[in-house]
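Q: Convert this sequence to structure tokens.
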Amino acid sequence: MIKPPVVLSIAGSDCSSGAGIQADLKAFSYFGTHGLTALTCVVAETPNQVVSIHPIPPAILQDQFKVLLETYQIKAIKTGMLYSKAHIVAVSELLEDLPIPVIVDPVMVASSGTHLIEDDAIDAYSQRLLPVASLVTPNLAEASVFLKEEISQLSEMEDAAREISSLYNIACLVKGGHLPQSDDRVDVLYTDRKHHRFSAPTIDIDSTHGTGCTLSAAITANIGRGLSMVDAVKTSKDWVHSAITESFDFQSPSGGQVQALNQLRPGALKP
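A:
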């Protein structure tokens, strides 16, 4: 009987399946883990726009989380879109004292530019969630929010990763996908008092919707499989780069193109 590692995503639903729990489940499956989900909100969105956000009541969120903890031996947990202070508190209460690695993807702003959390949720991240996490994966804008200063240079990314790591006693991966004037996409991990750079060539496509969710989910799966933090990040970064390289391209009935990460195993589309 097959018993794959079990991992959990606590995140929102993306009806276009490019981000959120749908993307997380694809990443979990790709890396041979069994994915569980605890839904935080339902988002009507595509790679091009966010139409509406409907939050799940925090009590229902906790019910989902509790029953999964009682039923499965969970090896790693990731959080994605939590939306409000109440949602962050609800999750943090159950994460406290759990001997399970927690990967926090602080989903604050959609790639379309729409803000995805309420203002008071930002402080709750810092005060409640990050202190119980193992790794946080902010992009440049999110790292800037945490440190209350603009992060826009590679050297600043390294300082930011170290400072966030020190503040919360966790590993920190600052993602440089929006780093200006760079031909490469560089992410900086700070863990065990060391910096690690992960670089990949920039790929010129119209949309990279869901890359942050997919990367953090892949890291969660690989941590759940027993990889070290550095190896989990490297393996996941390489895989997301290949998913962007082979991204799907759809013609939208409303006009324009919609792109999505290709998270299929190699050869899956061959006859």
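Residues 37 and 72 are 12 Å apart (CA to CA).
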